[in-house]
Amino acid sequence: MKEVLRTIVKYIVDNPEEILINQKEEGQSTILELKVAADDMGKVIGKGGRVAKAIRTVIGAAATKTDKHVLVKIID
Questions:
Q1: What distance in Å separates the CA atoms of residue 33 and residue 47, rounded to the nearest whole number?
Q2: What is the per-residue pLDDT across 39-74, written as a single tens digit (0 to 9) for each?
Q3: What's the whole-model pTM score?
Q4: Most C-beta atoms within 10 A of its C-beta, which of 27, 55, 64, 66?
Q5: Where are the beta strands (DSSP E) in the chain?
Q6: Residues 57, 38: contact at Cβ < 8 Å?
Q7: Can you give the residue ranges of every domain in the chain?
Q8: CATH topology of domain 2-75
C-alpha cells in the first residue's frame, strides 16, 4: 500500500522527492502517515479536503485484497 500511495501522491505534488510515508501496523489496521513539503500540503488536501478524501478512497479500495483496514493520515 505504501508504494500505491507514493505513486498517487507523486503526480499531485511539485516536490515528489520530499514525500515521506511511514507505515504502522496496529492489529487488523495499517496506518500510512503521509508527509509532503509544506508548499504541497494544500495540493494534497485539496479544496474542502476533496483530494485527501479521494486518496483515502483509492487506497481503501486497493486494500480490499489485503484483508486489512488501511488509514491514511496526512501529517505536517
A1: 20
A2: 999 999 999 999 999 999 999 999 988 888 999 999
A3: 0.91
A4: 55
A5: 20-26, 29-35, 69-75
A6: no
A7: 2-75
A8: GMP Synthetase; Chain A, domain 3 (3.30.300)
